[in-house]
Model the fold of this input.
Amino acid sequence: MDLKVPIVIVDELSDEVITSTGLLNLASGEIGRIEYQDYDFEADGLPFEHEDYEFTCGTLSNNGKDVEFRIDVNTVTGQYSVSASELLEIKVRAAALFAGVSGKALAAQAAARGLPEPPAPEPQPPRGKPGASGGRGGRFH
Done:
């Protein structure tokens, strides 16, 4: 089953923040249908191709609540994705935040089913405040 959820993606450069939207596949961690807001990647190149590129992060939102996470970028293929351990952490944090289910309760259910405990979360890069974003007139990449 492919469950894809809309996310906001932020590519951090030294002096610029590039905002886009995409769909996160909760089964595989792949991110697709990336649409940049107020940024022309055909003219300016993909954000990670810039010399001053720093990192990429994402936000999953529901009813005014947000879960932030790190996004990996394959600089050869241009594919954005989330690692398996980060994806598991997103699911645990989203369940706790959006549905009021605690991480301990989820771990207890997993242990009862004989599933391994989730790995410790990976360190998160520093988060900057995204700049003002405009409309949704961007193109997909």
Remarks:
- Residues 4-82 form one domain.
